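Review form for a predicted model. The reviewer records the input and the model, then writes brief findings.
Reviewer: anonymous (R2)
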Amino acid sequence: GSAGKIITWSLPPAEKVAFWVLQTKSRGEWHTALLPASTTSHTIKRTNPEVVAISALNHQRILGPVALLPL
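Model under review:
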């Protein structure tokens, strides 16, 4: 719908995250958002994203593995 699609994710409690890196691909164009560590859901407002990916960024600025989220 026009309101967007809500996506959610989680991390095991023992892991520490400084930020989440959320990436979406729509019409061949990538968009990146840096989200606070406390965020575990986001509304995708772009129409019909082709890909949605999330990665954890730790306090040492090391990016964790990319997880592709189901659409």
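Findings: The mean pLDDT is 89.
Further findings: Residues 19 and 37 are 5 Å apart (CA to CA).
Recommendation: see findings above.
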